[in-house]
Amino acid sequence: MAITNGTTDDRYIVWLDIDNTLYPRSTRIAELMGERIHEYFLSLGFEENDARELHLKYYTQYGLALRGLMKHHDIDAQDFDRRCDGSLPLETILKPDPKVRKLIQDIDRSKARVWALTNAYSTHAKRVLHILQLDDLIEGVFFCDYAEPNFSCKPEREFYDEAMRVAGVTDASKCLFVDDNLNNVKAAKSLGWGCSVLYSEREEGHTMKEHPQVEGVDVVIGRLEELRQVWKHVFTDASS
């Protein structure tokens, strides 16, 4: 599902993952989310070890723990979203990064559109983008629709295919994608997306040459700024 006013055109489309990509892992939001999901399993009556094992199993098997919970335990996805994603104190943790905003601003809109591609629900996606002050730079957000009993998510093919359809993309080679999850990037690459980039966050001062090549991935970067080099054909001349 998407938040969009998109129409078909022949420009490139930059797909940006949100969580742990548009903000640093040091925020520990992933860990906080994991703790809340674990508590949710416990609230369903599972013992500590069983909850931990099922959480990992469902995440590994389905891409999201929520998918497994919906398939096997008939839970209310909207309730899960409120108690897990919705309870995260994002406003006290996240803050805008002028460098990230400038990076996205410098994508030449005559050459490329900018969308977000996330496994979160729309409420979380919009909340994060608003806090980071990036929502005005994003044309559309393709998200997991928790309201649908059989929703798809990264890295499933259906998710990428539907994202392209909703965004009006007919040529997969026009898709430029960055994500911090290896399986998500490899899935996009296998579908013929034009340049699929794995974001493996590193400290300032490293160079792209320090990253090992990863099978099934076009490029590995350690800082988002390196997208200016990788996708220089869609950035403004002043930023290249």
UniProtKB/TrEMBL annotation:
SUPFAM superfamilies: HAD-like
InterPro entries reported in the protein's UniProt record: HAD-like_sf, HAD-SF_hydro_IA, HAD_sf, Pyr-5-nucltdase, SSM1_domain
GO MF term list: nucleotidase activity
One Pfam entry name: Hydrolase
Biological process annotations from GO: nucleotide catabolic process; pyrimidine nucleobase metabolic process
NCBIfam families tied to this protein: HAD-SF-IA-v3, Pyr-5-nucltdase
Name of the protein in question: Pyrimidine 5-nucleotidase
Organism placement in taxonomy: Eukaryota, Fungi, Dikarya, Basidiomycota, Agaricomycotina
